[in-house]
Structure formats: structure tokens, C-alpha cells
Design goal:
401 residues; mainly beta; Agglutinin, subunit A; 2 domains; four-stranded antiparallel β-sheet; 28 strands; 0% helix; globular
Length: 401
């Protein structure tokens, strides 16, 4: 049972279809990691889904990628990606019929091959993985780091618009960068595997980017290798409890990767949990990061999820929906000016309701705090540079903290 990340555009009714192209039955497990807001993407870094389209199949020409060879692919101005305004692409990459073990690394076509990988395989395998990769000259490259040849199949699922990303939720794609390797003490204090039922912390951004405080989530290619027992790996924000989800499933001696999109939560840190009776090494390569919500308030109907932040225009004041459930207004030097007092409700979120009431929910329909400003439809919340958190109804302040 091996995972493969999937990024698909739902139909208008909100459903996606999963088809088992097999002569037998199978169980399927799906864990949601996030979603893209609907509408027509126009801002740099926003995602444009496309109908899955095959861009490359080396089997059709009969010539595999040779040992230590590099294949290059034009990924813009084709039948699926008709524009040249592309900053990164999302691809499902499959290797077929390798003659020796090795790895595939996908990277921008005009850059040197980075220390990273996207697929790990053995002779005779057929393996797939989702890849998000930066595009700088319209091309991407595939390096076959193997002593044997391998066929490649590449299907495009969508792309991110080119330009300097500034919008909340936009992607900043980076050259694939290794941020964790427990075999080499990279990202961890010692060169040792993750122990049985063990958890290791990870700062996925390291010293980059300079605006790390504005990062909401990261895209990582996570690989497990040399496990001693079967199990799974879960990657999750360090500020929350271990979720009922997994990113990698493995058996003894396996080496398998999977693409992971994960929130960095309120602390900017991640945990990697080894739910196994044995140890395993773990490798993680950074492919990009999503920008955090930098709103100065909430419009009617908008919500702030656990770990979300609203900042005043100057950035000196912050309203934080903390993972412990407390909605807290912080000033300079992180001095607390006000809180909702809901710190015993982890995972709560706050909504600026259409009726004008600001409400903290533990989970629908369980409200644990409200501003008492219902009966003011269309009211909005603003965090001002003077430190006041204000609900306005048609320009009139009806609630101030």
C-alpha cells in the first residue's frame, strides 16, 4: 500500500472521482491537506488546474532515459498549458521498467541538478509521485541517477502563475532543496534514524526564505528509507496534536517518497511521526512555500483558522487564532492586549458571520465565544495601527477592543 499525492480540480458539485483501473477491488484512504479558493486565478503564485494531460511518454518513442542521463521537457505553450505565464508546474511523474535501482530528480531546466530527488526505484519497478517544480525558462529536466535506463511518463495537473507572489495562499516555488536527511545529520542533531513510535521536529525553511514569518505552509518531497518494520510517517504542524492521517506507508527495507503539502501552524515548525515498531531514516526536500494570510481584518463571511494571523497595516499588532483555541490580540514585544479566553478549546476557528457577529467555534455548531454584535449584517472586522480591534457597521464602530 503506497501513497501518491494527488491534486485535482473538483467538479461544480464539489466531488472528485477516484477510479480503480484494476481487475480486483481495493480499499482507498484519502486525507485532505488543504484546498484552493475558487474563481479565476490572476495573481502571481496562484494555482490554475487543468484536465490531467500526458506531456511525455518515452515508451512511445521506444527510447528510455539512459544511465545518468537527463531528459528535458517543454512544459509551457502546449495543449494543456497554453500560456507562457508559468512559474511552477504540478506533474505526476511515473518511472517504468528501470534496469537498475536509482532515483529521478525533477528540476528547472536551466539550473544545475540539486541535491534532491522525487522518485526512488528498484529494477523492474513501476512507481509514481506528484511533483511540484519551479519553471524558469519554460523547460524542466529529469535526471536519471541510476546505472541503468528507465522510461518516464509525465502528466500535468496544473500550474502556478509566474511573478512575485504577494497574495495570501500564493506559492513561492524554489529550486529543490534538501532540508532533512537523518542519515547525514541534516536538519537533526545526529545521524540516526527516527526511532520506533518516535517524533522528530523540523524547521522546513531553515535559513530561507527571509520572509519566513509570512509562510503558511510548505511543499516537501518526503522519503523514507531503510525501515526495520512496517509502518507509516505523518507530517504535521508542531503546534497541533498528531492527526489521524499519514503521508507515507512502508514495509521493511523499503525506500518510498511522497509529495507533502503541510501547514507550518503557529510556530513555523513541523513534526514527523514514525508510527512503526521499528526505526526508519527520513529525507525531506523543499519545493516551495505558500504565503500566510496577511489580512488587516475580516470581511463578512470570512474566517481565520487555527494558527491564522491578522496583522495591522504597520505589522505592529497581530490578532492570532492560537492552536489552543484562544483568540489573542498582541501588541509590540508580544504584549497581550486582549483575548477571548477560549484557551481550553484547541483547534477552534473564528468567523466574521454574515449577521455581523464575530464568533469563535470549537467546531460547528459549537460556539464558545462571540462579540454580541449580531443584527448588523455586512459588518466587518478591522485591526488598526492604533492597536484597536474594531467591528464596523457601515463605517460606525459597534465593538472595540
Amino acid at each position: 500500500m503506497k501513497p501518491d499525492a494527488t491534486r485535482r480540480s473538483p467538479k461544480s458539485d464539489g466531488y472528485v472521482k477516484l477510479t480503480n483501473s484494476s481487475a480486483g477491488s481495493t480499499h482507498v484512504i484519502a486525507d485532505v491537506a488543504g484546498y484552493f479558493v475558487g474563481g479565476v486565478p490572476t495573481a502571481p503564485g496562484t494555482f490554475v488546474p487543468v484536465t490531467p494531460t500526458r506531456l511525455l511518454d518515452t515508451r512511445s518513442g521506444g527510447v528510455p532515459v539512459g544511465a545518468q542521463g537527463i531528459a528535458r521537457l517543454q512544459v509551457i505553450a502546449n495543449s494543456a498549458v497554453t500560456t507562457v505565464n508559468v512559474g511552477a508546474v504540478v506533474l505526476n511523474v511515473t518511472e517504468v521498467a528501470p534496469t537498475a535501482p536509482g532515483t529521478i530528480t525533477v528540476y528547472p531546466g536551466d539550473e544545475a541538478m540539486p541535491i534532491a530527488s522525487n522518485l526512488n526505484f528498484l529494477a523492474g519497478d513501476v512507481r509514481a509521485n506528484l511533483v511540484t517544480v519551479k519553471v524558469t525558462n519554460g523547460q524542466i529536466a529529469f535526471k536519471n541517477a541510476s546505472a541503468g535506463s528507465v522510461h518516464l511518463i509525465v502528466d500535468v495537473a496544473g500550474y502556478y502563475l509566474r511573478g512575485t507572489a504577494t497574495t495570501a495562499g500564493a506559492l513561492v516555488a524554489v529550486t529543490p532543496t534538501r532540508v532533512l536527511d537523518t542519515r547525514a545529520a541534516m536538519g537533526v542533531p545526529t545521524a540516526s534514524p527516527v526511532p520506533a513510535s518516535g517524533t522528530i521536529p523540523l524547521n522546513p525553511l531553515g535559513s530561507r526564505p527571509p520572509d519566513a514569518a509570512g509562510v503558511a505552509a510548505v511543499i516537501l518531497n518526503v522519503t523514507e528509507t531503510a525501515p526495520t518494520k512496517p509502518g507509516n510517517i505523518t507530517v504535521y504542524p508542531a503546534s497541533v496534536s498528531l492527526p489521524t492521517a499519514s503521508n507515507l506507508n512502508f514495509g521493511p527495507g523499503d525506500t518510498y517518497p511522497n509529495l507533502v503539502a503541510v501547514s507550518v501552524g503557529a510556530t513555523g515548525q513541523l513534526n514527523l511521526r514514525n508510527s512503526s515498531a521499528g526505526s526508519t531514516h527520513v529525507i525531506a526536500d523543499l519545493a516551495g512555500y505558500y504565503l500566510k494570510n496577511t489580512w488587516t481584518g475580516l470581511q463578512s463571511g470570512q474566517m481565520l483558522d487555527s494558527g491564522g494571523v491578522i496583522a495591522s497595516p504597520s505589522g505592529e499588532w497581530r490578532l492570532v487564532m492560537q492552536p489552543d483555541g484562544n483568540l489573542v490580540l498582541y501588541g509590540p514585544q508580544n504584549v497581550v492586549k486582549w483575548s477571548s479566553g477560549t484557551y481550553n478549546d484547541p483547534g477552534s476557528f473564528v468567523v466574521m458571520q454574515g449577521d455581523g457577529n464575530l464568533v469563535v467555534y470549537r467546531g460547528l455548531p459549537y460556539a464558545v465565544w462571540n462579540s454580541g454584535t449580531a443584527q448588523h449584517p455586512g459588518a466587518i472586522l478591522r485591526l488598526q495601527d492604533d492597536g484597536n480591534l474594531v467591528i464596523y457597521d457601515q463605517g460606525q464602530a459597534i465593538w472595540v477592543r
